[in-house]
Amino acid sequence: MKIDEKNISLIKQLCKEYKVRTFSAFGSVTREDFRNDSDIDFVVDFEENDPFKYTDLYFQLKEKLENLFKRQIDLIEERAIKNNFFRKELDRTKVLIYGR
Questions:
Q1: Is the dihedral angle over the CA atoms 92, 94, 95, 99 positive or is it negative?
Q2: Four-CA torsion 99, 12, 17, 76, nearest 10 degrees
Q3: Using CA atoms in the order 29, 34, 35, 39, what is the torsion angle rounded to 10 degrees?
Q4: Checking DSSP bridges between strand 20-26 and strand 40-46, what pairing results, if any?
Q5: Mean pLDDT throughout 20-43?
Q6: Which of 77, 76, 57 has the alpha carbon at shortest distance from 14?
Q7: Contact present, 22 and 100 (Cβ < 8 Å)
Q8: How many CB atoms lie within 10 A of CB 84?
Q9: Which residue has the higher pLDDT, 77 or 50?
């Protein structure tokens, strides 16, 4: 994975702050085809279920991640994944960063 230990530590802090249950990287950042102009794909599962609080947490976390990495972040919510083909690809490449 192309995310260094310093940034992994910062991600873990953000996960605690934003009530994240699990947080994983997937896609090119976990493979050899990651480039300097690639976006970074993450999948997140929040502890929060209240839709108003959840929305705030989601967009605040996404903004913090984009500021941290200085690049486009695709933040996918675990519960929103319905496509089986996408699910298989995600499961094949994802690397757990936070949670279990």
A1: negative
A2: -70
A3: -40
A4: antiparallel
A5: 91
A6: 57
A7: yes
A8: 8
A9: 77
Helix (H) or strand (E) holding 96: strand 95-98
Compute the distance between CA of residue 99 and CA of residue 25 in angstroms, rounded to an integer.
12
Per-residue pLDDT band at 33 (split at 50, 70, 90): confident
Could you give the CA distance from residue 57 to residue 46 in angstroms, rounded to a whole number? 8
Other residues' Cβ atoms within 10 Å of the Cβ of residue 26:
21
Question: Residue 88 has which token pair?
Answer: 């298989």
Query: Structural domains in the chain?
Result: 5-98 (3.30.460.10)
Which pLDDT value is given to residue 48? 78
**49-66 pLDDT, tens per residue?**
788 888 999 999 999 999
Q: Write a three-state SS string for 15-71.
A: HHHCCEEEEEEEHHHHCCCCCCCCCEEEEEEECCCCHHHHHHHHHHHHHHHHHHHCC
